[in-house]
Amino acid sequence: MATGTEPSSHTGATGVHTASRAAIPARHLRTDRWWLAPACTAAGLLAFIVYSTWRAFANADYYHAPYVSPFYSPCLAENCHTMRGGPNWEIFGSWWGLSPALLILIFPLGFRLTCYYYRKAYYRGFWASPPACAVAEPHKKYTGETRFPLILQNIHRYFFYFAVLVAGVLTYDTALTFRDEHYAWGHMGLGTLIFLVNIVLIWAYTVSCHSCRHIVGGRLKHFSKHPVRYRLWGWIGKLNERHMLLAWSSLVSVAVADFYVFLLASGAFPDPRFF
Amino acid sequence: MSVSQEEQRSGVYQAHFRVWRGDEHAGDLADFTVEVHEGEVVLDIVHRLQATQAPDLAVRWNCKAGKCGSCSAEINGRPRLMCMTRMSVFDRTETITITPMRAFPVVRDLVTDVSFNYAKAREIPAFVPPAELAPGEYRMQQEDVGRSQEFRKCIECFLCQDTCHVVRDHEENKAAFAGPRFLMRIAELDMHPLDAAPDSGIDRKATAQDEHGLGYCNITKCCTEVCPEHIKITDNALIPLKERAADRKYDPLVWLGNKIRRRGE
Predict the structure, then answer these.
(1) Which end of chain B is more exposed for a tag (fewer CB within 10 A), N or C?
(2) Nearest-angstrom CA–CA distance, A31 and B75
């Protein structure tokens, strides 16, 4: 039979140690490696944050004809490298003196920061809220996404709209990679292949977004009255099931595409041409 | 033949269990060694424990088929149905810990007071029948009800409510937060093609956020992870409901579109 555990030790406690609940001193009783997934998530996101911060502030080695790094496209300031036929749109003119990547990265960053998958990832990985299922979180108070700043997560759909525009520009950049270094069309190199894989993954991640699923058809009450939108909703739903996979693979592919341009631009090796 | 070889051959072995015993005043984990037969589930072992060593052990169960949602507990710290947890998933030498659900007040041993959930269920406005149709005249297309049929698989085991950190780790949030099971219920009704709630002045999208605490959910998906019916609670109910609430409360474009459309009607 059970030995006594005095409830007085739980007085004033909250969460799983609330007085009326089963008196179990441990914060959790999980025996599996529950910490592995949040640790890997945090490590992966941290690695990307370090890499992208370095590249975004570097303001160098982001263009090697015909490739432009996805971190610097479209280039919205005058201090951009001139890219023949490329995305040079000097909306911000000459007053912008910092890296032009900072102007555009805010949009994909906002899209990923408010993404329903990444929210889960960083709430678990960085904020331990919760670190894993049925593992007590360390915070005394929790208000979720009811207050500023986290209530701003509700504007995810606006970042989705911008993400579609950015993906459109990156598609244009990918089309430009079918040129050679002298801007002649009808060529293809290893970079073209990397850009193609990247843009497919970027579009798949963008389209599989929960907000996209909602906008396309999820908000409807009567699918039967909107057969086309219902069909589209079904397709996006299938992609949406792989949203986490697409989030990670597109994150890696965009970093690989940027790093490849960095290697070419810094003269590490010439782009292997297929034809 | 050694004991372990004999155990391998017969499929019968002795397993070590720690079962929480106590009530709302006090309690502790008690150690037991129980015989396990091939093909058994954790609930079988708890029944054997009652029959052989602890006749006063309290446990709530009913169908033993994963359909009544009664035998919810935490096994090695994970919220699960005892009747659907096969002993074969554990190593034979492993100590298996069984405790009551830790988000709810304990009654005795493995039995908890889940009345929080019934109180929350009563707070959700029921289906509002359309005024122009009598019972028996409801006609719906399959594609219109397909989405919400997934949510009807819920057996109300309350494992999602138990694992949700919003209330599990913060007792004070219980008043404001309905929990994943009942937010899913709101989503189900809001997606129902014949629900006439808006005509009777009930805005399920807005009240999900304002009255049932949808904003507390930070979509970390534990409810989905523990659901024994494999309902995609987060992706198919909670996130769509968040998007619907955003339509109503945080999206000026949708608001403007609705105004223009109504003016044109």
Answers:
(1) C
(2) 10
β-strand pairing of B95-99 with B13-22: parallel
Nearest to B143 among A4, A210, A223 (CB): A223
Contacts of A150 in chain B (CB under 8 A): 218
pTM of the entire predicted model: 0.93
A139 in reach of chain B (CB within 8 A): yes
Question: By three-state DSSP, how is residue B93 classified?
Answer: coil
Put simply, the chain A residues between 54 and 113 with a CB less than 8 A from any chain B CB are none
Would you state the pLDDT for residue B255? 81
CATH of domain B3-112: 3.10.20.30
Domain locations in chain B?
3-112, 115-264
Both tokens of A135, joined, read: 């593992």
- Distances in Å between the alpha carbon of A270 and those of A55, A194, A274, B174? 20, 15, 12, 62
Whether B60 has a pLDDT exceeding 70, the answer reads: yes
Q: Distance, in angstroms, between A65 CA and closest chain B CA?
A: 41
Chain A residue closest to B237 (CA)? A218
pLDDT over threshold 80, residue A11: no
Listed range (A77-86, A254-263, B202-211) with the worst mean pLDDT: A77-86
Residue A134, C-beta contacts closer than 8 angstroms, at least 6 positions apart:
A28, A30, B74, B77, B78, B79, B102, B162, B163, B168, B222, B226
B159 neighbourhood in chain A, CB within 8 Å: none
Nearest to B77 among A120, A134, A151 (CB): A134
pLDDT digits (tens, 9 = 90+) for A91-133: 888 888 899 999 999 999 999 999 999 999 999 999 999 999 9
pLDDT in tens, A214-241: 999 999 999 999 999 999 999 999 999 9
In words, the CATH class of domain B115-264 is mainly alpha
Q: What is the ipTM of this complex?
A: 0.92
The Cα–Cα gap between B243 and B72 comes to 31
